[in-house]
Write a structure and sequence with these properties.
Two copies of one chain form a homodimer. By secondary structure, chain A is α/β, with parallel strands linked by helices. Chain A has two domains: about 240 residues, 3-Layer(aba) Sandwich (Aspartate Aminotransferase, domain 2); about 120 residues, Aspartate Aminotransferase, domain 1. Chain A has 14 helices and 15 strands. In chain A, strands 2-10-9-8-5-3-4 form a seven-stranded mixed β-sheet, sandwiched between helices. Chain A is globular and about 60 Å long. The relative contact order of chain A is 0.17. Chains A and B meet through helix 1, helix 3, helix 4 and helix 10 of A and helix 1, helix 3, helix 4 and helix 10 of B.
């Protein structure tokens, strides 16, 4: 028997009570039963997104939400600014090009956060930019971009919106959608929301709706305006993923019981314990600055293959983490602490990493990282 | 206590063993565990679709599969032929226009099936048509179009594909994808596949892939070629809806145990019993020809509001059916017998319809329709 532990940056573990809620018999989405669930879920999402705006629910994974956040706000030929500091930043660029936008890309070294000043400069140089695209947390590098600072920069431009991919950020750390003035915030179900993959969520500000009014592009399945009209009546334009929405109702109850401060506090503590723990075991963090509280990207020590660490965690110890992507393959490995996670998930992860490294012949003092993590987790 | 019965044309009831399978703990989609499940599911889908072609699995509802079947096969300015005999036929027209196609639409009276000769004539007149779009079963009217005949007509045109929305058809009645030569067949999870909504499936023929090679359009999330490349390696381009795919594995096991002939035979028997049953109760079928075995559309009797029938079924008897859409609202109601359905679902439905009609003051002899249904169901 090999017991399994899921510490990948999505899908993340689904709490048992949510699994059971989703196992309730199916019901119809054009009936009062669904209306009631959906109304509650929509309220809960506003709370979670810290917004008065409608949060659209889409039957798709996160990329579907990203696609709609391009196709609904940019017409072919429109100017877009993308911030590319990793694999998901790159996706913004690809998406904008697919939909015919004229893209200015700010390339950020993988492992670093964008310097907000470069965005300020780009907008100053070209105030005709319609939308700025960024990640709150870049999953491929484990770095958080300062979306609060970016919102302040974009705000004065009356016809430019800020679109934030918060897929591995929302529900992990504080994102004050309305207070900071972020126009579009996207997340997915399988990260901090502790659900299986299959739902994308998008909050849209008035400024963004105004921009959408003028747009000509090929959004059909991801037609935000049509969804907005339907969802305000607790319906969806196309058949919704009913069982996941039932799970979401349960998840939102759990998150409300903990409170936003409670959730963010727990996630921050776990992230800190993970970072200090792996450093206590003699490892180095990959991010050179601004590590995301959602996941920790760890550099493989000199002479050790990062893919071997990732693979041995899974095969020897039943623990699914993640390797590096693209040019970081073999150079880093990543451990997530988003969502349904508590102190002993961190202890286990640090212990397993120590054991794998030792097994690979790397000199590590067993328990050194664990002790560091324990210290931090006790200080709560 | 009001016990609930789901007889809407999607979502349909999910078998308890499938609900439980989906409640298993989450696992990662970039790991051998998923590969194994996905490989099995892909094989099963080929069996169900009666094709040697790859069947793409998308995290979306059926409309997502329809959108991709337009955006991946038509460039702006390309010619498309759509068959519009109801709300979903209309969706083909809208989709084709959204993606810039030049659309010829064959309008079919709601309640009738397309005359294949009109399609033959249209193709003869304009052999430059790249794709013909049709429903195998038009859910809004309960009519089946003869896709076998259409496939014979389209086949000789070497650069024209036939795209069949089989969302309420596949797994209900026989669709021999390869033998008949249908290029693209689409279905969704929440119909005959007895799953919650959230997955779309699309089989693509070599002829269709050749067409796709030349296409320029804005497919990103629904980029079939990219999915094809990934899925042949048991991976997906974007995060898959893991829990639904686990449920699908279970569903395919159940369907294989019954066999295609067994499934189609049961569905045909149930459909016949429903049609004869409601006629035995003095009601008329809405389709003037070619009723679909997936669902029965029934005309509301003179002087009785179809919406009242639908509503009373739900409120008084806990039975969720469906009303009419668009100009058929109030004139018809629809009862589904797709998927996880057996003889007593039909008996219950006919009995409930009789009781609702009697309650609305319509003269109906209680048990008259039920007796007719019983007769047919015993003749098996």
């Amino acid at each position: 028997m090999l017991k399994r532990y899921l510490l990948a940056p999505g899908p993340t573990p689904v709490p048992p009570e949510v699994l059971l809620a989703m196992a309730r018999p199916m019901f119809h989405h054009r009936a009062p039963e669904f209306d009631k669930v959906f109304a509650e879920v929509r309220d809960g999402l506003k709370w979670l997104f810290q917004t008065k705006n409608n949060v659209l629910v889409l039957a798709a994974s996160g990329t579907g939400g990203m696609e709609g956040s391009v196709s609904n706000f940019l017409s072919p030929g429109d100017k877009a600014l993308t911030i590319n500091g990793g694999k998901f930043g790159e996706r913004w660029t690809k998406l904008c090009k697919t939909f015919g936008a004229e893209v200015t890309e700010i390339k950020v070294e993988w492992g670093r956060a964008v310097d907000p000043q470069t965005v300020a400069d780009a907008l100053k140089k070209d105030p005709g930019i319609k939308a700025v695209y960024v990640q709150a947390s870049e999953t491929s590098t484990g770095v958080a971009h300062d979306v609060k600072a970016l919102a302040e920069i974009v705000k004065p431009y009356g016809e430019t919106i800020l679109v934030v991919d918060a897929i591995t950020a929302l529900g992990v750390f504080d994102i004050k959608t309305d207070e900071w003035g972020i126009d579009v915030v996207i997340t997915g179900s399988q990260k901090a929301l502790m659900l299986p993959p299959g739902l994308a969520f998008v909050s849209v500000s008035d400024k963004a709706w105004q921009l959408a009014e003028k747009v000509k592009n090929t959004a059909f399945y991801f037609n935000f305006k049509k969804e907005h009209e339907n969802q305000q009546k607790n319906q969806t334009a196309y058949t919704p993923a009913v069982s996941l929405i039932v799970g979401l109702q349960e998840v939102l109850k759990m998150m409300k019981a903990e409170g936003l401060e409670g959730v963010f506090g727990r996630q921050a503590l776990l992230a800190k314990a993970m970072r200090e723990g792996v450093q206590g075991a003699g490892l180095a963090l990959f991010p050179k600055e601004s590590p995301s509280d959602a996941l920790t990207a760890i550099s493989a020590p000199e002479g050790v293959d990062g893919q071997a660490i990732y693979k041995n965690l899974r095969v020897q110890y039943g623990m699914t983490a993640a390797g590096g992507q693209d040019h970081l393959k073999g150079k880093i490995f990543r451990v997530s602490h988003m969502g349904y996670m508590d102190r002993f998930d961190i202890i286990m992860a640090v212990a397993a990493i120590e054991m794998v490294l030792k097994g690979l012949g790397h000199p590590v003092k067993l328990g050194s990282g664990v002790a560091k993590a324990q210290e931090i987790l006790m200080a709560k």
